[in-house]
């Protein structure tokens, strides 16, 4: 630390003359103090300090140095990634190998345990040597003084000018440094100062603090450092860039290591034989890069990047981390937080395996999958057959195999995808809430003329005329149970007309469906009552929104805002009050139970009332081995997308097969079975080892009488299958984008 040397080199002739005179005085003082007893010298140093601990800058009393934030999976052990501007993490002194503590004292401040913050002998000797122009400049700064300088030059609460002033080559700055160091020594123990120093010192190669340095150079925690490793690291502090064996000169690093080992032997910390043995050890490095950000998640787990990105987006909405988005982003990078996320590694692994089983990474089509825990809103998994990466894609491939777009959660440029008949859930809930029962009957025709004006294919005499996809299996008298189980379009369009389309749209929003597409948002806001095709899932949504909406039913009407964390702890170990489940009742419990009861029909299970008589995803029952489960399939117009949502009381999972870049590229009906299988297997992993939990049957009042009088509708002979809106998919896609 050649501070005084650089001071002498940068001052004017008059200042240099003053420095020479001061050097002469200090040289004489050095001769005088050399004969003084150590205790008397310590007392003189302490009394020379001007100021008190209370008057110190806040950053010296309560360090605010930037630290790395860690993101873990829900087990609190599996590291997802870290965020940092400065690669640094504090550790307790007890977690640092004793030889490392001894090495840094021997290398930087042999009299650390005897001086009062400023070593007058060392200062005088360094000043005289520097003014005389010796071959090696000497700093004379104690560990405490170095600590003061490091804190002030890295304090994130200070301005750039104030941080720069912490290393000004002026005598005034040096005197202030001595004052601060002496004040610190009056109030803090030596071990506390040493611990703080080791947590802030720069060791080169981007590693700040002993924890980061130990990982960077040797791939191990500081408690496991050997004598030779400790001496090497201690030697780096004097000139981190020059001595770094990774980015600098390994021979210089070894020479500096030998100096530290000899110094440790001189102080009695080790024997000469131990020093010689450590000198003989070859330089063995295990460089370990610390991941930084969502594109640097753990090796082999780039699929975790989508969850990480969702967490980052959530983080910047939380006032607990700052008043503005930039402040919250800075808090994540420099606040030293420990974040235990809700990501379940096993559920995530299964979801990723299933998503890539349906479509490979190099397929333009995608299967984004999301898993949510009912009753908490905790997001357990977010998977898609894409690498979360900024790497370039082959020519002609827009967002595959690499992308950082939020394909699972939506946002930015991602509006979502049509989820087809899964939206019939919202019609059923609105009807049940209005007083209708599961037994509400209707003789569903192959095609149903409606009151909504429409022209072109799919219209009947100028009105929208939706049709059943499989008339032979779907047409006829239906109630909510089998209407939902067989996914009868005309039954649910009729039911939505009875309830009011605006009530159905409001129900979807109540359960968390967000309209990200401008045209969808405008329809919902300005003309929801006339959005006839809404029940058939023409609005864009995402797997996360859809899974969480169904999770609300699984939780018997309790909606929980999706959340990606279990706990957040700050750098001091205090819990931050964020991430707790934010839940509210949005449905009567009996209404939710009734909807769940009908949702048993599609997956091949039976309602307690015995009214299920066919389903579109009956294989789910076999995959779950008869465990209580419910769900719903969805196919949008011309099979542009295929969707399945499944849920138990413990988990809800949704997957949507689509082409994120081109909604006119229909995935086709053949993939539906694969989507159902994929989602069901994710559910199976999520509930594995958990006690089997049954759905609560709805009340007899809400079930109603299975055979009520039937309302009949006119039958249209033309049995053309038209799943959704009479407008072409391409036209609606063009409309959505202006």
Please name the CATH architecture of the domain at 388-443 and 476-703.
Answer: 3-Layer(aba) Sandwich
Average pLDDT confidence is 86
Overall strand count = 22
CATH superfamily of the domain at 388-443 and 476-703: DD-peptidase/beta-lactamase superfamily
Overall body shape: elongated
Portion of residues in beta strands equals 5-15%
User: How many H/I helical runs?
Assistant: 30
Oligomer: single chain
CATH class designation of the domain at 388-443 and 476-703: Alpha Beta
Describe this structure in words.
The protein is of the alpha+beta class. It is 41% helix and 10% strand. The chain contains 30 helices and 22 strands. Strand 12 and strand 13 (463-464) form a beta hairpin. It starts with a helix and ends with a helix. The model is unreliable at 1-50, 133-138 and 708-738 (pLDDT under 50).
Record keyword descriptors for this entry.
738 residues; alpha+beta; glycosyltransferase; cell shape; Membrane carboxypeptidase (Penicillin-binding protein); Beta-lactam/transpept-like; Penicillin binding protein transpeptidase fold; carboxypeptidase; Beta-lactamase; disordered C terminus
Question: How is the secondary structure organized here?
Answer:
Blueprint: H1 3-10, H2 13-34, H3 38-48, H4 58-61, E1 69-72, E2 79-83, E3 87-88, H5 98-108, H6 120-132, H7 143-154, H8 160-165, H9 171-187, H10 190-200, E4 207-208, H11 210-218, H12 227-236, H13 240-243, H14 250-267, H15 272-280, H16 304-315, H17 325-334, E5 338-341, H18 345-358, E6 369-372, E7 379-383, E8 387-388, E9 402-403, E10 417-418, H19 424-433, E11 442-444, E12 459-460, E13 463-464, H20 471-474, E14 476-478, H21 480-485, H22 489-499, H23 501-510, H24 518-526, E15 540-541, H25 543-554, E16 558-560, E17 565-569, E18 583-585, H26 589-598, H27 619-623, E19 630-635, E20 642-647, E21 652-657, H28 672-687, H29 700-703, E22 711-712, H30 729-736
Parallel strand pairs: 1-5, 3-4, 8-9, 11-22
Antiparallel strand pairs: 1-2, 5-17, 6-7, 6-21, 10-15, 11-14, 12-13, 16-18, 19-20, 20-21
């Amino acid at each position: 630390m050649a501070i005084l040397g650089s001071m002498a080199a940068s001052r004017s002739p008059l200042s240099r003359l003053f420095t020479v005179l001061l050097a002469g005085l200090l040289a004489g003082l050095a001769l005088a103090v050399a004969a003084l007893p150590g205790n008397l010298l310590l007392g003189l140093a302490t009394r020379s300090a001007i100021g008190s601990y209370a008057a110190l800058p806040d950053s010296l009393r309560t360090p605010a140095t930037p630290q790395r934030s860690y993101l873990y999976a829900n087990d609190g052990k599996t590291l997802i990634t870290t965020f940092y501007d400065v690669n640094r993490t504090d550790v307790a002194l007890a977690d640092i190998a004793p030889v490392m503590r001894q090495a840094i004292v021997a290398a930087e401040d042999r009299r650390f345990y005897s001086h009062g913050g400023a070593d007058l002998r060392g200062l005088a000797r360094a000043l005289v040597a520097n003014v005389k122009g010796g071959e090696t400049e000497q700093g004379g700064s104690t560990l405490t003084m170095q600590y003061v300088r490091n804190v002030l030059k890295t304090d994130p609460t200070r301005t750039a000018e104030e941080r720069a002033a912490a290393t000004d080559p002026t005598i005034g700055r040096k005197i202030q440094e001595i004052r601060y160091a002496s004040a610190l020594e009056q109030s803090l123990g030596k071990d506390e100062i040493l611990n703080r120093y080791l947590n802030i010192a720069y060791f080169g190669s981007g590693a700040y603090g002993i924890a980061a340095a130990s990982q960077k150079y040797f791939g191990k925690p500081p408690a496991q450092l050997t004598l030779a490793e400790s001496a090497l690291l201690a030697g780096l502090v004097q000139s981190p860039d020059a001595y770094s064996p990774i980015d600098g000169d390994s021979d210089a690093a070894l020479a500096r290591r030998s100096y530290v080992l000899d110094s440790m032997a001189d102080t009695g910390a080790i024997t000469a034989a131990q020093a010689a043995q450590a000198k003989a050890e070859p330089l063995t490095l295990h460089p370990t890069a610390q991941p930084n950000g969502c594109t640097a998640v753990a090796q082999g787990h780039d699929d975790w990047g989508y969850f990480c990105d969702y967490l980052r987006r959530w983080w910047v909405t939380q006032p607990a981390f700052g008043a503005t988005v930039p402040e919250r982003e800075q808090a994540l990078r420099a606040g030293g937080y420990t974040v235990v996320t809700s990501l379940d590694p096993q559920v995530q692994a299964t979801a990723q395996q299933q998503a890539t089983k349906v479509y490979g990474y190099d397929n333009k089509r995608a299967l984004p999958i999301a898993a949510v825990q009912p009753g908490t809103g905790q997001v357990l998994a977010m998977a898609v057959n894409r690498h979360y990466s900024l790497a370039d894609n082959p020519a002609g491939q827009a967002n595959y195999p690499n992308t950082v777009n939020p394909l699972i959660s939506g946002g930015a440029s991602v509006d979502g995808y049509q989820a087809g008949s899964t939206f019939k859930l919202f019609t059923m809930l609105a009807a049940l809430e209005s007083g209708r029962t599961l037994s509400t009957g209707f003789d569903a025709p192959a095609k149903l003329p409606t009151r909504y004006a429409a022209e072109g294919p799919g219209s009947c005499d100028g009105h929208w005329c939706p049709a059943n996809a499989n008339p032979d299996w779907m047409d006829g008298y239906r109630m909510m149970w089998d209407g939902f189980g067989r996914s009868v379009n005309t039954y649910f369009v009729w039911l939505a007309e009875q309830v009011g389309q605006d009530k159905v749209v409001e129900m979807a929003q109540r359960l968390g469906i967000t309209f990200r597409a401008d045209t969808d948002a405008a329809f919902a806001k300005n003309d929801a009552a006339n959005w006839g095709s809404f029940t058939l899932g023409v609005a864009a949504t995402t797997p996360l929104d859809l899974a969480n909406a169904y999770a609300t039913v699984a939780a018997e009407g309790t909606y929980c805002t999706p959340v990606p964390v279990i706990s957040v702890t700050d750098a001091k170990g205090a819990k931050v009050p964020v991430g707790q489940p934010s839940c509210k009742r949005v449905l009567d419990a009996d209404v939710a139970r009734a909807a769940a009861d009908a949702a048993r029909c599609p997956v091949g299970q039976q309602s307690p009332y015995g009214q299920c008589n066919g389903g579109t995803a009956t294989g789910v029952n076999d995959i779950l081995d008869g465990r209580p489960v419910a769900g719903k399939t969805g196919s949008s117009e011309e099979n542009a997308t295929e969707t399945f949502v499944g849920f138990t009381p413990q988990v809800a999972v949704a997957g949507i097969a689509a082409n994120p870049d081109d909604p006119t590229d229909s995935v086709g009906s053949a993939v539906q079975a694969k989507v159902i299988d994929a989602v069901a297997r994710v559910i199976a992993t999520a509930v594995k080892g958990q006690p089997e939990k049954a759905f609560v049957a709805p009340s007899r009042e809400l079930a109603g009488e299975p055979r009520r009088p039937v309302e009949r509708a006119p039958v249209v002979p033309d049995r053309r299958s038209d799943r959704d809106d009479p407008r072409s998919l391409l036209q609606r896609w063009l409309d959505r984008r202006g």
